[in-house]
Amino acid sequence: MKASFQKYTLIFKQASGTSRGVYTTRDSWFIFLNDGTNTGIGECAPLPDLSIESLNRMSARLLLVCEQIGYFISSPEELNAWPSIKFGIEMALLDLRNGGKQELFPSPFTRGEQGLPINGLIWMGTPEFMKQQIRAKLDAGFRCIKMKIGALDFETELELLKAIRCEFSPEEITLRVDANCAYSFQTALENLKRLSDLQIHSIEQPIQTGRWNEMAELCRQSPVPIGLDEELIGISSGKEMQKLLETIRPAFLILKPSLHGGFSGCGKWIELAEKNRTGWWITSALESNIGLNAIAQWTFHLNAKNEQGLGTGQLFTNNFDSPLEIAGDQLWFRPEKSWNLQNLQGSNPDDDF
User: Fold this and answer.
1) DSSP code, position 4
2) Residue 112: which of 336, 290, 313 has the closest Cα?
3) Domain 116-333 - what CATH class?
4) Residue 245 and residue 276 in contact, taking contact as beta carbons nearer than 8 Å
């Protein structure tokens, strides 16, 4: 087996804001595995200032991985500190074993028979920009809205949420919010109490990571169910995973394969979550359509029950044409549509790696 990789910069259609800053571009690295007949493609997509990986060292690490691909395939635990690379290899191997056609988990989803319910994501920005996004998602038929909060003042964000709730009841529209660690412990509980008046479904990561006792206290007192996202990054041992869940006792886990160790890492979290009666859902992490496709197929394979966070494929000007399509509030795979991967140099199985 031969391996190679390629860096690719995705360009946002418009600046996308979080409490950590504004994205205009994001880098992904694609790994190619070739067996002489087919090529499997995997995406390694760490996020700046969030992933435990050093983006400056990604190419050097991938060069080593490609030179010793057999070793890293047989010893995936050696990539626990490089979760997006671990995910990329898992993805590429599954693609290769299924003929290099980007069909990793054949199912009614990949046959175009069933879609995946997803939430409509509202990015941070000016109040007017956020209102426009909200209206567009509601008009498109989304029944679950997820709004990133923490960049504007809390009163402004609260008014935006109130406007939705005044128009739609909790039975009509589910509201999720993602604070991306924006609040202090001192202000979080009061904010959560005010959010609960709007019957918010859940809040992701209200305070900074690593403060397990404070987060546990918030989970105990909060009238809004709390989900953990950033808190899970960098934790890969079963013992520490179990300790985190027993200490904090969150309502939900929000899992991202690129950040949490691929299918295998997220699978461990799901197994522990279900043992601890903790809910979960899957979210993409600004991957291209290649990574999004793999995550969506896997999520359907898991028989996930609620709305997933898989609607980010439309954000980029230079994404890859794919069979993925959003219709209403569902993500669909249209098998009659073709992939266009011409910008990826390793996608041709005849290439000399």
Assistant:
1) E
2) 336
3) alpha beta
4) yes
- The answer to whether residues 35 and 350 touch, using CB atoms and an 8 Å cutoff, is no
Strand partners, 9: 27
How many CA within 13 A on the CB side of residue 124?
A: 21
Residue 41, strand partner residues: 32
Q: For every residue of 326-338, which 3-state class applies, written as one string?
A: EECCEEEECCCCC
CB atoms within 10 A of CB 29: 21
SS3 178: strand
CA Rg value for the chain:
20
For 14-30, write each residue's pLDDT tens digit: 877 665 677 899 999 99
According to CATH, where is 3.30.390.10 located in the chain?
A: 2-97
Determine the Cα–Cα distance for residues 145 and 344; give it in Å rounded to an integer: 34
Where in the chain is CATH 3.20.20.120? 116-333
Task: State the Cα–Cα distance between residues 88 and 76, nearest whole angstrom.
Answer: 11
- Which of 281, 237, 276 lies closest to 255, judged by CA? 281
Q: Which fold has domain 2-97?
A: Enolase-like; domain 1 (3.30.390)
* C-alpha–C-alpha distance, residues 34 and 300, integer Å: 27
Give the tokens for residue 109: 């989803």
Vertex 333: Cα angle to 116 and 145 (nearest 5)? 35
Contact 317, 11 (CB under 8 A): yes
**Has this prediction a pTM greater than 0.85?**
yes
The residues annotated with a catalytic role in the active site are: 148, 256
Q: Which helix (H) or strand (E) holds 159?
A: helix 154-167
pLDDT tens digits for range 53-91 = 999 999 999 999 999 999 999 999 999 999 999 999 999
